[in-house]
Amino acid sequence: MSASNTEGGRIFREAWIAGVRKHYLGEPKPGYVAAWEDTPDWERASASAVYSQVLAFLTITAGQAAKLTRTQKGQFIAACWTGQIHRHFPDPKPSYVADWDELPAWQQETDADIFERVEQDYVPGE
Fold first, then answer.
1. Contact status, residue 17 vs residue 23, Cβ threshold 8 Å
2. In whole angstroms, what is the distance from residue 74 CA to residue 71 CA?
């Protein structure tokens, strides 16, 4: 894996912010586009973990996970993120753990963008 855990988390966060700015209609909540330094510790840890999960997925599939559809890529990100929510919050709000079909379109597109951004860091054979 080519990026350190913290670096991977930053990459994940930058991809999230870029996706929000691209796909969110209107003005996003400030927390959606907060800089890495202004992001809560649990969220930074989660971003790093999910980045690592995507790289691991690409590694154990010898890069073939890149052939998933955009929807499948977004669903992978969403499922990994939901796992992190459950890890950090014993009783999360339902909107934090919503099923894929319940997520707004902007969030689905952003999740797919994140997967595709992490794909760029995959190095075959690592």
1. no
2. 5
